[in-house]
Amino acid sequence: VSAADALQQAAAGAFVLDVRGQSEWDAGHLDTATLLPLPELARRWRELPADRPILVHCQGGTRSPMAASLLQRLGLSVVDVLGGYGALAREGHERSTREAREKHQTH
Length: 107
What we know:
Blueprint: H1 3-11, E1 15-18, H2 22-27, E2 33-35, H3 38-44, E3 54-57, H4 63-73, E4 78-80, H5 84-106
Helix pairs in contact: 1-5
């Protein structure tokens, strides 16, 4: 799913799973995301919600397809976010900039 669609789904209540490493997370992450690094996923997947969709992302799109595949095999509803955190951060910044500009123009 695209970053724009992922942000809409997250706003609607989807669970956002970040499978990057701790140092990548520390450098920047989505406020609504939960960190569960890919190497820990097979051991800790039961911590994830089974009652709502899971949007999984990594930094650029290499690790998240592996995570999505594993979680789908385990029966969870999972969507891979194309472009990873980079795309989500760009889309989120563009969206917040656009919303601020629109708000400013209406006042």
